[in-house]
Specification:
Number of helices: 13
Strand order of the largest sheet: 2-1-5-4-3
Shape: rod-shaped
Number of strands: 12
Number of domains: 3
Oligomer: single chain
Order of helices and strands: HHHEEEHEEHHHHEHEEHEEHHEEH
Mean pLDDT: 77
Strand content: 15-25%
Helix content: 55-70%
Radius of gyration: 48 Å
Structural class: alpha+beta
Low-confidence stretches: 1-18
Length: 495
């Protein structure tokens, strides 16, 4: 015992740990990470137009400066500027050459020692968004040593200005701008993610976490009423889920209480099984001796005593059979239903005046377990006989009929009697053990056992009608399905 207790404790601790959700795998962490990722993705999608617009604005600014210098040079005399002055002008705007196009004629105003080779031509006026984004990414990742030719109109002037310049300054400016945008985007993403997380955690994750704790707590002790969740006054989906969970837990507690009562009853009955059988056997022996007494009073009471003992024996056996372990799976075979119904007829203790009609065709076959179907029909027919035996009026027609029909691969067995019908209480708890009895002193186990056995066959038992003078039960049993692989294997011829 000293070794088993630590082992059980360790197992319980492991189970408890397995039912807890780690922080890294929780919904809150996943929600936070997904929010950050999605916001960053949105920032990336916004960043591309931003960086393209910044690149175009930077080039426009340099072109405007070059245009201002060009106007001064055009109005003056370019040859009057010394080489040093020209270099200062070019250095101020970061260019290698400045030109102006007027009336289709280009005029080079300021140039370095030798006109450089141009790697890329950029038309400011005709650069679209897509072209601008691809150009910005190209400059950002692969630029730095290229020569650009930037041209386009400036303001309302009819002249077109040109500027030849290296792109390393542009790339440096774009890198600084990208770094600033990335930093701001990261701050926005984290801040937005925290706000979204806080809002969703308050609205959704928090209540879901509370529901999870409630379900785990309820599973540890489902019979305690305090473990039932208390739903919040919400009208959304979570409120509906909490209310439905509360109702489900309450129904489960009620069901568990009923099952506990039935289990206690089965345990009690099993304990008194031996003593009850001995007492009933002794009572039957005494009743047999009473039959031999010639006293008229004793002769009148002896049959009643025998019937009472028979009912007591049947009651005890019914309770015991229902309290046993679960029924074995049905061993299904092809049966001739007519002979099975005849066997049921031979077992029934039918009083005089009750007619039994076997309306099943002699060739009718059903795919079922013989013993279990026999018990089903016996229970249904015995209930019908007992109901009709309670009607003592001699003019009444008391008839029990069993018929059958086939609908495709489904067999339908119909049991009809002319008894008084089922009372409303019996209809409400028709297949419930100990609650579906239609007569005083009954257990209500006959229909419960029949329902369990037919359901094991994949079929149903239903009350078709129950009115004064006619009660009909229908047992529906589908044929056993055939596995195609086995059937094909059995049809293959040996090589």
């Amino acid at each position: 015992m000293s070794e088993a207790s630590p082992a059980n404790e360790g197992t319980g601790t492991a189970k408890a740990a397995g039912r807890r959700v780690p922080l890294s795998r929780g919904l809150s962490t996943k929600l936070l990470l997904l929010t950050i990722v999605f916001v960053l993705l949105a920032e990336v999608l916004i960043f591309l137009p931003w960086i393209a617009s910044y690149r175009l604005s930077w080039l426009k600014e340099r072109l405007n400066t070059a245009a201002a210098v060009s106007i001064v040079l055009v109005q003056g005399e370019p040859a009057s500027l010394s080489r040093a002055a020209q270099n200062d002008v070019l250095m101020a705007i970061g260019a290698k050459a400045i030109a102006v196009r007027d009336g289709g004629v280009s005029r080079l105003l300021v140039v370095a020692d030798m006109p450089p080779n141009v790697d890329e031509h950029i038309d400011i006026a005709n650069t679209g968004m897509l072209e601008g984004m691809t150009g910005a990414l190209d400059t950002l990742f692969f630029g730095g040593d290229r020569m650009l030719r930037v041209f386009g109109p400036v303001g309302e002037s009819d002249k077109e200005f040109e500027l030849i310049m290296p792109d390393y300054r542009l790339r440096e400016a774009m890198l600084i701008y990208s770094r600033n945008v990335a930093f701001v985007s990261l701050l926005i993403s984290v801040f937005t993610a925290m706000l979204v997380y806080a809002a969703i955690d308050l609205i959704m994750i928090g209540p879901i976490r509370a529901m999870t704790r409630s379900m785990l707590s309820f599973s540890e002790a489902p019979d305690e009423p305090s473990r039932v969740i208390h739903p919040a006054a919400r009208s959304d989906e979570i409120g509906v889920a909490e209310r439905e969970l509360s109702l489900m837990q309450q129904r489960l507690q009620k069901m568990l209480a009923e099952q506990k009562h039935l289990a206690d009853l089965g345990l009690a009955v099993s304990k008194i099984n031996h003593d009850m059988r001995n007492i009933l056997a002794s009572a039957q022996l005494m009743s047999d001796r009473l039959r031999q007494v010639k006293d008229p009073t004793v002769q009148s009471f002896a049959p009643k005593l025998l019937r009472a003992l028979d009912r007591a024996v049947a009651y005890s056996e019914g309770v015991l059979s229902y309290g046993r372990a679960q029924e074995a799976p049905p061993s299904r075979r092809r049966l001739r239903l007519y002979q099975l119904v005849e066997d049921v007829h031979g077992l029934l203790d039918i009083e005089e005046g009750i007619e039994f009609v076997n309306a099943v065709e002699s060739a009718f076959e059903v795919d079922a377990d013989s013993d279990q179907l026999f018990r089903v029909l016996t229970n249904l027919c015995r209930n019908a006989v007992q109901a009709m035996a309670a009607d003592t009026e001699s003019a009444l027609v008391r008839r029990l009929a069993v018929s059958a029909e086939r609908q495709g691969s489904v067999s339908r067995i119909v049991v009809t009697d002319t008894g008084p019908g089922l009372p409303p209480k019996a209809r409400e708890n028709l297949f419930a053990a100990f609650r579906g009895s239609a007569r005083s002193g009954g257990t209500g186990l006959g229909l419960a056992i029949a329902h369990e056995l037919v359901r094991a066959h994949g079929g149903t038992v239903e009350l078709v009608e129950s009115i004064g003078g006619r009660t009909t039960f229908a047992v529906t049993i589908p044929d056993q399905p055939v596995r195609l692989d086995q059937a094909r294997g059995s049809l293959r011829r040996p090589a």
